[in-house]
User: Fold this.
Amino acid sequence: MKKLVDSPDTVLAQSLDGFCAAHADLVVADADRRFVRRRTPTPGKVALISGGGSGHEPLHAGFVGHGMLDAACPGQVFTSPTPDQMVEAVRAVDTGAGCLFIVKNYEGDVMNFSMAADLCDAGIATVITDDDVAVERSTWSTGRRGVAGTLVVEKLVGAAAERGADLDTLAALGRRVNAATRSMGVALTSCTVPAAGSPTFTLADDEMEMGVGIHGEPGRRRVPLVGATAIADEMLTAIVDDLTAPVGTEVLLFVNGFGGTPLMELYVMVDAARRILAARGLKVVRHLTGAYVTSLEMAGCSLTVTALDAELAALWDAPVHTPALRWGR
Amino acid sequence: MKKLVDSPDTVLAQSLDGFCAAHADLVVADADRRFVRRRTPTPGKVALISGGGSGHEPLHAGFVGHGMLDAACPGQVFTSPTPDQMVEAVRAVDTGAGCLFIVKNYEGDVMNFSMAADLCDAGIATVITDDDVAVERSTWSTGRRGVAGTLVVEKLVGAAAERGADLDTLAALGRRVNAATRSMGVALTSCTVPAAGSPTFTLADDEMEMGVGIHGEPGRRRVPLVGATAIADEMLTAIVDDLTAPVGTEVLLFVNGFGGTPLMELYVMVDAARRILAARGLKVVRHLTGAYVTSLEMAGCSLTVTALDAELAALWDAPVHTPALRWGR
Assistant:
């Protein structure tokens, strides 16, 4: 296993300590590292809390800050956080306006966030993300998986929360954004969970996993590697056919690296995706490109398309100031 | 070769097209893709121009924008840009105050930027970066190599240029920042240049290249892989011994991913580096963590330390608004 770690047992703790030290102006973890929260809470604002297995950095802790999350609960690598983590996060960040849980659709995450909600006195609402069109059910999920589109939900709902929207409004917005968002991924290589020490799956030198999940779960099919444009075409055909947005719809295109793919290749995918979406009558008006929802060092990428309207575009443009995503004034 | 490309012949053009489309609010390329420049020039400001072989994205085009570069000239992968690229960039961005070339110390880059300077009527000054302490000369360089510290030079000089400093002042500042900066890298895997199609070098499953260059050039020694703290200790010992900063000096710590290393591991390195620097009496007061000066999909990282004073810290904090680096107001 070729990794920059001291031990699989300490990698999460050391990584969180490094993260919190590097971004001490923005975030702080509790003493037991059960959650990472904003250093400065906003009284009266609905608190947004997400979390899930680690190994997808910067998701979710990298999105804690103004305009996105109030807290994130990191599980061990590819393992759900436990309910006590979310309970403690709620205690730390709820200022009386309630908390919105944003949860990727994996059985462990959904169960543990649900248990946490039951244990809390605070008002809790939950948005489940399930943007992955690759498969209708998976190893770890009943129904579609929540993948990179979760970032879009966190960004748009986070902007609305900053403007003072109430819990019910934010939950409805989160479901609307999730419903307007579709993703699909492709893996060129596997990834290695530190505690396992060997690759999660194997791919031959000329193979790719089309529709892969963000833990290396199987996708639609394992096929010979083809060119970037052909890969983008297969993914976007699945996405656009499922999204059924009218011709002329304005969209956000999010090209997400899985951790081991150079930025140069992600921009090749941007170029290919723009051409394909234009041919389908969709107009790309916003972009996000980079490794934001990763699978350790997996090579490959996902494409996410969100159908925008004026409200969603304005929420996307709203200021955000987190360790991993920053713009606006 | 497992890459998201259509063809090695078109990867650079497609990638630049995707990049310019994704960041059309900030940058534009000329029709022949010889340079990427700011969409909106600032009259009367000294123009900062950098460039070099591609494959190190987001360096340099990702740093074109307010507070950093005015233009970047992308060569083919790991190949110097040609003098005509810089000549055309000068024509496009010089507004009469002159141009500063920021050039990494590789023979091809130094020669071609020098030829370009001779061909220009505009006032040109040049800063050569050579922050890599790993080796005193290398395959492609006479003297030390310019690596991730180049970003620090571009950021600090860029901030000073935005404040109206003149060409001589900026050139002197660039040399001062370079002199206050040291870097060293480690590779856990090789990388594959698209046009070559096979890895640049090979490492056994238990080996690392200590002191590797950003093109996969040999470093100090090839040794068995050890833990993150031991790796950080060897690199920082070389860096700190060479920097000879007084105990108590405040520093910027830049942990840079080479393209194939997860953010989780980079933060493990941050944690290790902070402990080691504290033991050496240096105080980390600024951080940058991420894949900013890459070597395609190479796994590994570099550590960069810059000794700060009040002026340099203020220049680091100054607003920057580029595709890859954004903060401030």
